Amino acid sequence: MRRYSTVGFNSGNIQPIVIYDNAHTEKAQILKDNQGKAAIYRWVNKVNGKTYIGSSVNLSVRLYKYYSLKHIAEKKTPIHNALLKYGFDKFKLEILEYCKEDINPIDREQYYFSKLKPEYNILDEAGSSLGFKHRMETIEFLLRPRTIEQSDGARVKMKERLPFARLKRAGYAAASAETRQNLSLAATGRVLTEEDKRKLSEGRKGIILTVETRAKISAAAVSLRGVGVLVKNNNTDVNMEFASLTEAAKYIGVSRPAVKKYVDTGKLIQGIYLVTTL
């Protein structure tokens, strides 16, 4: 049940505008109420009292990501880990403030951040990923070496680092050229030697493509660039537009081929989502 707060909380005596006592059972109402709204929100763990404060210019889009189990499983941050561990029914969602067009949500987030000291936040300052300012213990964790198991059974030592540009903006020592190269290789998951590159180049020489093959390549390129799609949630009547099938798939929490299949058949994904091309 949704209710408006009349009682202050924490040392700052700050009153949330809206409190959703059960983020699981009130999911549909939460998404409907906050569609297209810029706001400052707070997750509250009802088990241990720990909190997380965030902001968004479109809160419903941000919340859809929270409600995607695939999305929060990939994030590995304290708040995402806590949502997975305890479940949404053990969290309440508070709307601390709805922001008008002339108000920067980041500035207001910083205000609440300073007042309430949320335990699940890993940043010293409010803000987006552009200009991250991490706590020192977070930096140390992200720079810690680890061993990664590759698919072919080989084990590769690498540094789990923040991106080079982000480290530079944060004022820390620049990563070496070798480190940046290793990060690039680790991100792609494959290493091509000069001999490999030469063989690939030679293998392409003299190939004559038929009209049919060229058409298939062109269609594949269009597919990769993305076809705009509209995702309608039949439970909440909320419509979301995405630039590609891939983005829509991430939002729903399924594979891209699955979305393509349901677009072609016109059936509902998970019995909820209707996906159509724009």
Automatic annotation (TrEMBL):
Top-level lineage group: Eukaryota
UniProt-listed InterPro entries: GIY-YIG_endonuc, GIY-YIG_endonuc_sf, Intron_endoG1, Intron_nuc_1_rpt, NUMOD1, NUMOD3
UniProt keyword DNA damage, yes or no: no
Stored Pfam families: GIY-YIG, NUMOD1
Keyword Nucleus assigned: no
Stretches of the chain forming a coiled coil according to its record: none
Alphabetical UniProt keywords: Endonuclease, Hydrolase, Mitochondrion, Nuclease
One MF annotation (Gene Ontology) recorded for this entry: DNA binding
Span of domain GIY-YIG: 36-122
PROSITE patterns in alphabetical order: GIY_YIG
Protein family membership: To endonucleases of group I introns of fungi and phage.
NCBIfam families: grpIintron_endo (TIGR01453)
Protein name, entry field: GIY-YIG endonuclease
Organism: Juglanconis oblonga
Taxonomic lineage: Eukaryota, Fungi, Dikarya, Ascomycota, Pezizomycotina
